[in-house]
Design goal:
It is a single chain. By secondary structure, the protein is α/β, with parallel strands linked by helices. 48% of the residues are buried. InterPro entries: ADH-like_C (IPR013149), ADH-like_N (IPR013154), ER (IPR020843), GroES-like_sf (IPR011032), NAD(P)-bd_dom_sf (IPR036291), Quin_OxRdtase/zeta-crystal_CS (IPR002364), Zn-ADH-like_protein (IPR051397). It comes from Paenibacillus terreus. Pfam families: ADH_N (PF08240), ADH_zinc_N (PF00107).
């Protein structure tokens, strides 16, 4: 098989294609012939050496794949050879390869969703869509008519958060973006309005008034997260979903107490270690929304695996919307 291997921290040029032995399934596992692999911010951070304690070099990045079941290990039921699937690799990584080792609990049969989900969409969607679905339904427990603010609204995760929030009954859904050219995407991604992140506090207050918002979904972190707390209603909730800014600000617990704030965090990979069955079930439910057309996937670009470095550079430019995928097979 072919894999994209990172042997040292560095720029996009450190992504190197290597021939490796074919994989064989162990007990309770399957091997998938990978058709497409999702490209995400986490892959870039891994490449830069941000998570070497979790993912020491050499490493094959990639959190999510779509493809066809190649072989099935003992103890696995409910799948067949050649079946089209999407799977979450999460903390195991290994998606940037023509073969991937997957666990059944985190693998969704695409032919059982009751609709048509194309392979690129499946790879682009399974991690971010499941994260959005669980963050809205299980973490925030959104109520009918809630007012919601989503940061990085046109990104891989944000492009689903607005749609899922609307699906679960949100009344007003606002989002922030980093550049004005992304504002045109608002309606297609479920947003009532998209705002520039540079002045989102004042503009949000103008739209919703002094009552504030019921929930903020934030994968950005840093100053953005700190300023967002100003916008929460009493008993409103901040859901931390990432830290793309690289900044981390502590907030005084007395301020949280006196301000009647709820601050929650959700990391799909870490939660899947604790409860893979729950994550797998959520993935099926989330992808069924995609199959039925209730949610749409924004695939910004598809790159052959030989051009993985170009995909990384494009994502780092912050000029993309939705998701980039690599064509592996």
């Amino acid at each position: 098989m072919k894999s994209i291997v990172i042997e040292r921290a560095g720029g996009a040029e450190v992504l190197q294609i290597k021939e490796m032995p074919d994989l064989a399934p162990r007990y309770g596992e399957m091997i998938v012939d990978v058709a497409y692999a999702g490209v995400g911010l986490v892959d870039i951070l891994i490449r830069k050496g941000e998570f070497t304690e979790l993912f020491p070099f050499p490493v094959i990045p990639g959190l999510e794949v779509s493809g066809y079941v190649r072989s099935i290990g003992e103890g696995v039921q409910g799948f067949r050879i050649g079946q089209p699937v999407a799977s979450m690799k999460l903390l195991e990584l290994g998606g940037y390869a023509t073969q991937a080792r997957v666990t059944p609990q985190l693998t969704v049969p695409l032919d059982e969703l009751g609709g048509d989900v194309k392979m690129p969409e499946a790879a682009a969607s399974i991690v971010n869509l499941t994260t959005a679905y669980m963050a809205v339904k299980h973490v925030n427990r959104m109520k009918e008519g809630d007012t919601v603010l989503v940061h990085a609204a046109a990104g891989g995760l944000g492009s689903f958060l607005g749609q899922i929030a609307k699906r679960f009954g949100a009344g007003t859904v606002l989002g922030t973006v980093g550049s004005s050219d992304k504002i045109r995407l608002a309606a297609s991604l479920g947003y009532d309005e998209l705002l520039l992140r540079t002045d989102f506090v004042d503009v949000t207050k103008q739209i919703v008034g002094m009552q504030g918002v019921d929930a903020v979904f934030d994968p950005v972190g840093g100053e953005t997260r700190a300023h967002s707390l100003e916008l929460l209603k009493p008993l409103g909730q901040m859901i931390a979903l990432g830290n793309a800014s690289g900044g981390e600000l502590m907030h005084a617990t007395n301020d949280i107490w006196l301000g009647n704030m709820n601050i929650a965090g959700f990391n799909l990979g870490a939660y899947a270690v604790y409860n893979p069955d729950s994550v797998g079930q959520a993935a099926r439910e989330a992808l069924q929304l995609l199959a039925s057309g209730d949610v749409r996937s924004e695939v910004y670009g598809i790159y052959p695996m030989e051009y993985a470095s170009d995909a990384h550079r494009l994502l780092e430019s912050r000029q993309t919307s939705g998701k980039l995928v690599l064509q592996m097979g």
